[in-house]
Amino acid sequence: MMKPFKWHGLAAAAAAALALSGCGPAPAKKDRAIAVEQPWVRLPAVAGEPGAAYFRLTGGAEGTTLVSVSSPLVKRIELHESMTANGTASMKKLDDVDFAYDGTIAFKPGGRHAMLFGIAPAVKPGLSLPLTFAFDNAPPITVSAEVRSAAGETGGEHAGH
Ligand SMILES: [Cu+2]
User: Fold this and answer.
1) Poorest-confidence range of 54-63, 87-96, 119-128?
2) Pick from 158, 159, 37: which is nearest to 104 by CA?
3) Window from 4-18, 39-53, 67-81 with minimum mean pLDDT
4) Ligand 1 centroid vs 76 CA: distance in angstroms?
5) pTM reported for the whole predicted model
6) Ligand 1 centroid to 110 CA: how many Å?
């Protein structure tokens, strides 16, 4: 049975291939360490609603899968993907995300994101939020994500909730 995330994996692989074209041969990625880069969190416009975390994943051995994101200051975090079909924005939950490609998997507004449910009131713009990324075949990685307010942002990830 096909899992839903496989489709996204194909799309991401295609995007990564495009991004790399014209840049010469890609370096071997087999033993590259996993990195979580540029992590940031967008707080909800209304307190109590879910926020979202964005970041870039690189590296990892062939077949490495991101299985979860967690934080001591967030009750529950899900991996989501936003999409627009027939003019309607929606999103769905991803069981996990395979990111072992010759490139970077980006979690960014309007696309993949980590949805943060139950953010502690102490989490404020300008502070940092620890996020721990768990993988199926690699040690977990904890990063500090920059916390930003929802002010001035449009196209939030709340459509579909
Ligand atoms: Cu979401």
Assistant:
1) 54-63
2) 37
3) 4-18
4) 12
5) 0.73
6) 10
- What's the gap in Å between 79 CA and the centre of ligand 1? 7
Does residue 17 surpass a pLDDT of 70?
Answer: no
For residues 46 and 69, give the distance between their C-alpha atoms in angstroms, rounded to a whole number: 23
Q: Tokens 């627009």 sit at which residue?
A: 84
Two tokens at 107?
């979690």
Nearest 5°: the CA angle 96, 50, 71 is 60
Taking only the tens place, the pLDDT of each residue in 62-119 is 778 899 999 999 999 999 999 888 888 899 999 888 765 566 889 999 999 999 999 9
- Which letter, b or e, does each residue of 73-82 get, where b requires 16 or more Cβ atoms within 10 Å of its Cβ? bbeebbbbbb
What contacts 129, CB < 8 A, 6 or more positions away?
41, 53, 71, 73, 74, 123, 144, 145, 147
Interval between CA 23 and ligand 1 midpoint (Å) = 33
Matching CATH number, 5-12+30-145, of 2.60.40.1890, 2.60.40.60, 2.120.10.30, 3.40.710.10 = 2.60.40.1890
